[in-house]
Specification:
By secondary structure, the protein is of the alpha/beta class. It has four domains: 131 residues, N-utilizing Substance Protein B Homolog, Chain A (Orthogonal Bundle); 34 residues, no CATH class; 57 residues, Sun protein, domain 3 (Alpha-Beta Plaits, 2-Layer Sandwich), CATH 3.30.70.1170; 207 residues, Vaccinia Virus protein VP39 (Rossmann fold). 46% of the residues lie in helices and 15% in strands. The protein is built from 19 helices and 13 strands. The strands form two sheets. Strands 5, 6, 7, 8, 9, 10, 11, 12 and 13 form a nine-stranded mixed β-sheet that branches. Strands 2-3-1-4 form a four-stranded antiparallel β-sheet, with helices on one face. α14 links the parallel β5 and β6. The longest helix is centred in the last third of the chain and has 18 residues. The protein is globular, with a radius of gyration of 24 Å. The model has no long low-confidence stretch (mean pLDDT 96).
Length: 449
């Protein structure tokens, strides 16, 4: 009996959307898994692993293919290129898939997609790879070794090596390629961490306490998150620990007015609303109606009443908001170089010119939103990147441009494991592989009263 859905064909479609049409991996993969959520857990896991794994190791895979194909990867037809990439990933990284199966299924898929004349080419290249995989020679040292071994563009490596020792950079690269559990934040308004742990384990979920915060857990072993009753009941939100630390550093007081200027999908805004314990108000802003709808969906799920989603552009100055907020959260659009383990394709989309442009845009946004902070209020600036230009350099620029602000001492708001990593009293750069978190930068600044 022929299967109605071919997992490898779905993987090919995902790879084509990302590599040829510019779609973001986390969005297209989420949409495909939602559409085919009726598939068996094993089939869904295969789609996820092969899609993410092929992207994660793509520079290495292309390096391998170029050693065995007369036609170089860049010259191949896009469909053939992506069929070969996903098959090489299966051959090299999936012991559960026989080499013969990876080869045969790739040939069948090429034929199905209208490239029957290339079946011999696909078969020959893949069987040659499978036979000689252990004889492949890799660059022995330097940038090229790190770039090929970890599939990381050389310009990003140069950026990191200008700030960190090679050992630290390699720890980051290793962390990006490791499978990590999902981090969640307990909704303390409706359940205790102990109760949530019991509920999750009753649903068959593996739960581990995160060392940085008592209400944070790492979970694994579930199939479809949306089917968990505890999630439907709003007992937790999906949020990385680094993002939770934004609200910890903001440390709002009862009755505070909080403005989150780039809030979608709303994790930090909801966390702030929860910390206010029913008092005050959180205004969760974002640029588009779609992003606002994501925030509103999470507000409904969690049942919090002291928060409202609003469509506003952080690049447009809002005269009505001047000195209105006790706390402004500015988690601004960035290059995303700290979350490459979750959004692997970003490393192929990012450019030096693009990151410089983002740093300039961040300064423009900071220049706007600082005006919304009351005298004595706080501005928390954060990004999910590891790039001094977007992080510490922006903070130094900001403090020079707006001397009425100064860095807050954040050490007392952090767990003991993180206090020694605080820079200039008010900033911290979290690094994958060094810290148990995404790559993330935080800075807390206060306007003089």
């Amino acid at each position: 009996m022929t299967k109605s859905v071919n997992e490898r064909e779905l993987v090919l479609g995902i790879l084509m959307e990302i590599t040829e049409n510019g779609m973001y991996s986390h969005i297209i993969l989420r949409d495909v898994l939602n559409k085919y959520q009726y598939l068996d857990k094993k089939e869904r896991a295969f789609i996820t692993r092969v899609s993410e794994g092929t992207l994660e190791h793509m520079l290495e895979i292309d390096y391998i293919l170029n050693q065995f194909s007369k036609v170089k990867v860049k010259k191949m037809k896009p469909v053939i290129r992506n069929i070969l990439r996903s098959a090489v990933y299966q051959i090299k990284y999936m012991d559960s898939v026989p080499d013969s199966a990876a080869c045969n299924e790739a040939v069948k898929l090429a034929v199905k997609k209208g490239f029957g004349s290339l079946r011999g080419f696909v078969n020959g290249v893949l069987r040659n790879v499978a036979r000689n995989l252990n004889q492949i020679t890799y660059p022995a040292e330097g940038l090229q070794r790190l770039s090929i071994q970890y599939s990381m563009p050389e310009w990003i490596l140069e950026l990191w090596l200008s700030s960190y020792p090679e050992e630290t950079v390699e720890r980051m690269l290793q962390a990006f390629q490791e499978e990590t559990p999902l981090t969640i934040r307990c909704n303390l308004r409706c359940v205790t961490p102990e109760e949530l742990k019991i509920h999750l384990e009753a649903e068959g979920v593996a739960v581990a306490q995160h060392p940085y915060l008592p209400y944070a857990f790492e979970i694994s072993g579930y199939d479809y998150l949306g089917e968990l009753q505890s999630f439907q009941n709003g007992e937790f939100s999906v949020q990385d620990i680094s993002s939770m630390l934004v609200s910890e550093l903001a440390n709002p007081e009862s009755g505070d007015y909080v403005m989150d200027v780039c809030a979608a999908p709303g994790g930090k805004s909801l966390h702030m609303a929860e910390k206010l314990k029913g008092t005050g108000h959180v205004e969760a802003r974002d640029l588009t109606a779609y992003k606002v709808s994501l925030i509103e969906e999470n507000i409904r799920r969690t049942g919090l009443g002291n928060i409202r989603a609003v469509q506003k552009d952080a690049l447009q100055f809002d005269e009505a908001a001047v000195k209105k907020a006790d706390v402004v959260l500015a988690d601004l659009p960035c290059s995303g170089l700290g979350v490459l383990g979750k959004k692997t394709d970003l490393k192929y989309k990012a450019t030096e010119e693009g990151t410089a442009a983002l740093a300039r845009r961040q300064r423009e946004m900071l220049g706007n939103v600082q005006a919304y902070v009351k005298d004595g209020g706080k501005l928390v600036y954060s990004t999910c990147t590891v790039n001094p230009q977007e992080n510490m350099e922006n903070v130094h620029w900001f403090l020079n441009e707006y001397p009425e602000f100064s860095l807050c001492d954040i050490r007392g708001l952090l767990c003991e494991e993180l206090r020694n990593d605080v820079e200039e009293n008010g900033c911290i750069q979290l690094l994958p592989g060094v810290h148990q978190s995404d790559g993330f930068f935080l800075a807390c600044m206060k306007r003089q009263s």
